[in-house]
Amino acid sequence: MLHISRSLSLPDTELTERFLRADGPGGQHVNRTESAVELRFDVAASRSLPEDARARLLARRDRRMTEAGVLVIQARRFREQARNRDDARERLAELVRGALVAPKKRVATRPTRASQERRLAGKQLRGKLKQARTRHWNGE
Protein backbone atom coordinates (compact mmCIF):
# COMPACT_ATOMS: atom_id res chain seq x y z
CA MET A 1 0.00 0.00 0.00
CA LEU A 2 1.43 3.37 -1.06
CA HIS A 3 0.10 6.21 1.12
CA ILE A 4 -0.38 9.44 -0.82
CA SER A 5 -2.42 11.49 1.65
CA ARG A 6 -4.73 10.90 4.59
CA SER A 7 -7.62 10.10 2.31
CA LEU A 8 -5.79 8.37 -0.59
CA SER A 9 -3.68 5.24 -0.81
CA LEU A 10 -2.72 3.23 -3.85
CA PRO A 11 -2.96 -0.54 -3.39
CA ASP A 12 0.07 -2.62 -4.37
CA THR A 13 -2.08 -4.44 -6.94
CA GLU A 14 -2.14 -1.25 -9.05
CA LEU A 15 1.66 -0.91 -8.98
CA THR A 16 4.02 -3.03 -11.06
CA GLU A 17 7.69 -3.18 -10.14
CA ARG A 18 10.42 -4.50 -12.35
CA PHE A 19 14.04 -4.74 -11.28
CA LEU A 20 16.85 -4.29 -13.78
CA ARG A 21 20.57 -3.79 -13.90
CA ALA A 22 21.61 -0.24 -13.26
CA ASP A 23 24.41 1.64 -14.90
CA GLY A 24 26.72 3.92 -12.98
CA PRO A 25 28.86 3.37 -9.86
CA GLY A 26 29.19 0.01 -8.21
CA GLY A 27 32.18 -1.66 -9.86
CA GLN A 28 31.81 -5.28 -10.95
CA HIS A 29 28.93 -5.69 -8.51
CA VAL A 30 26.71 -3.56 -10.77
CA ASN A 31 26.94 -6.21 -13.51
CA ARG A 32 25.55 -8.94 -11.27
CA THR A 33 22.73 -7.27 -9.34
CA GLU A 34 19.45 -5.81 -10.44
CA SER A 35 19.38 -2.71 -8.28
CA ALA A 36 17.48 -0.33 -10.58
CA VAL A 37 13.70 -0.19 -10.24
CA GLU A 38 11.07 0.49 -12.90
CA LEU A 39 7.74 1.33 -11.27
CA ARG A 40 4.62 1.31 -13.46
CA PHE A 41 1.27 2.76 -12.46
CA ASP A 42 -1.69 2.49 -14.83
CA VAL A 43 -3.30 5.88 -14.32
CA ALA A 44 -6.05 5.28 -16.89
CA ALA A 45 -7.24 2.04 -15.27
CA SER A 46 -6.74 3.00 -11.61
CA ARG A 47 -9.85 2.60 -9.44
CA SER A 48 -8.38 4.33 -6.39
CA LEU A 49 -7.60 7.70 -8.00
CA PRO A 50 -10.25 10.43 -7.90
CA GLU A 51 -11.55 11.27 -11.38
CA ASP A 52 -10.25 14.87 -11.42
CA ALA A 53 -6.74 13.79 -10.32
CA ARG A 54 -6.73 11.06 -13.00
CA ALA A 55 -7.67 13.62 -15.65
CA ARG A 56 -4.93 16.01 -14.50
CA LEU A 57 -2.30 13.24 -14.53
CA LEU A 58 -3.33 12.07 -17.99
CA ALA A 59 -3.36 15.64 -19.33
CA ARG A 60 0.26 16.26 -18.28
CA ARG A 61 2.75 16.41 -21.09
CA ASP A 62 5.22 14.09 -19.45
CA ARG A 63 7.68 11.78 -21.18
CA ARG A 64 7.14 9.24 -18.38
CA MET A 65 3.50 8.77 -19.42
CA THR A 66 2.85 6.24 -22.19
CA GLU A 67 0.09 6.67 -24.75
CA ALA A 68 -1.88 3.95 -22.96
CA GLY A 69 -1.95 6.06 -19.78
CA VAL A 70 0.73 4.16 -17.84
CA LEU A 71 3.13 6.20 -15.74
CA VAL A 72 6.66 4.71 -15.79
CA ILE A 73 9.19 5.84 -13.19
CA GLN A 74 12.76 4.60 -13.24
CA ALA A 75 14.91 4.86 -10.13
CA ARG A 76 18.62 4.08 -10.27
CA ARG A 77 20.16 6.77 -8.08
CA PHE A 78 21.32 4.43 -5.33
CA ARG A 79 23.31 1.22 -5.25
CA GLU A 80 20.77 -0.66 -3.15
CA GLN A 81 17.55 -2.02 -4.65
CA ALA A 82 15.53 -1.16 -1.53
CA ARG A 83 16.57 2.51 -1.62
CA ASN A 84 15.79 2.73 -5.35
CA ARG A 85 12.40 1.12 -4.70
CA ASP A 86 11.60 3.66 -1.96
CA ASP A 87 12.81 6.49 -4.23
CA ALA A 88 10.54 5.39 -7.10
CA ARG A 89 7.53 5.06 -4.80
CA GLU A 90 8.15 8.49 -3.24
CA ARG A 91 8.45 10.10 -6.69
CA LEU A 92 5.17 8.50 -7.75
CA ALA A 93 3.50 9.71 -4.55
CA GLU A 94 4.79 13.24 -5.20
CA LEU A 95 3.35 13.23 -8.74
CA VAL A 96 -0.03 12.02 -7.53
CA ARG A 97 -0.04 14.57 -4.68
CA GLY A 98 0.55 17.30 -7.24
CA ALA A 99 -2.38 16.07 -9.32
CA LEU A 100 -4.71 16.08 -6.30
CA VAL A 101 -4.45 19.86 -5.99
CA ALA A 102 -6.57 21.73 -8.52
CA PRO A 103 -4.70 24.58 -10.21
CA LYS A 104 -5.92 28.08 -9.39
CA LYS A 105 -7.98 29.82 -12.04
CA ARG A 106 -6.23 32.78 -13.64
CA VAL A 107 -7.94 36.07 -12.97
CA ALA A 108 -7.71 38.34 -15.99
CA THR A 109 -6.36 41.79 -15.13
CA ARG A 110 -5.69 44.92 -17.14
CA PRO A 111 -2.38 46.79 -17.10
CA THR A 112 -2.39 49.99 -15.08
CA ARG A 113 -2.31 53.33 -16.84
CA ALA A 114 1.12 54.08 -15.35
CA SER A 115 2.56 50.81 -16.70
CA GLN A 116 1.12 51.55 -20.15
CA GLU A 117 2.65 55.02 -20.10
CA ARG A 118 6.04 53.63 -19.01
CA ARG A 119 5.90 51.11 -21.85
CA LEU A 120 5.05 53.79 -24.45
CA ALA A 121 7.74 56.14 -23.10
CA GLY A 122 10.30 53.35 -23.43
CA LYS A 123 9.20 52.67 -26.99
CA GLN A 124 9.50 56.36 -27.89
CA LEU A 125 12.97 56.54 -26.36
CA ARG A 126 14.06 53.46 -28.28
CA GLY A 127 12.63 54.90 -31.51
CA LYS A 128 14.49 58.19 -31.05
CA LEU A 129 17.73 56.29 -30.41
CA LYS A 130 17.30 54.29 -33.62
CA GLN A 131 16.37 57.40 -35.57
CA ALA A 132 19.52 59.13 -34.34
CA ARG A 133 21.58 56.19 -35.62
CA THR A 134 20.06 56.30 -39.11
CA ARG A 135 20.79 60.01 -39.54
CA HIS A 136 24.37 59.41 -38.55
CA TRP A 137 24.83 56.51 -40.96
CA ASN A 138 23.24 58.33 -43.91
CA GLY A 139 25.64 61.20 -43.48
CA GLU A 140 22.92 63.80 -42.92
How far apart the termini lie comes to 80 Å
CATH architecture term of the largest domain: 2-Layer Sandwich
CATH class descriptor name of the largest domain: Alpha Beta
The backbone outline, from C-alpha atoms, is elongated
| Strand segment count | 5
| Rg value | 27 Å
Topology overview:
Layout: E1 2-3, E2 9-10, E3 15-20, E4 36-42, H1 51-59, E5 70-75, H2 81-100, H3 113-138
Antiparallel strand pairs: 1-2, 3-4, 4-5
Helix pairs in contact: 1-2
GO molecular function: peptidyl-tRNA hydrolase activity
InterPro entries: Pep_chain_release_fac_I
Pfam families: RF-1
Describe the structure in your own words.
This protein has 140 residues and is of the alpha+beta class. The chain has two domains: 2-100, Double Stranded RNA Binding Domain; 111-140. It is 39% helix and 16% strand. It has three helices and five strands, in the order ββββαβαα. Strands 3-4-5 form a three-stranded antiparallel beta sheet, with helices on one face. The chain has a two-stranded antiparallel ribbon with strand order 1-2. Strand 1 and strand 2 (9-10) form a beta hairpin. Helix 1 crosses helix 2. The longest helix is centred in the C-terminal third of the chain and has 26 residues, at 113-138. The chain is elongated. The chain starts with a strand and ends with a helix.
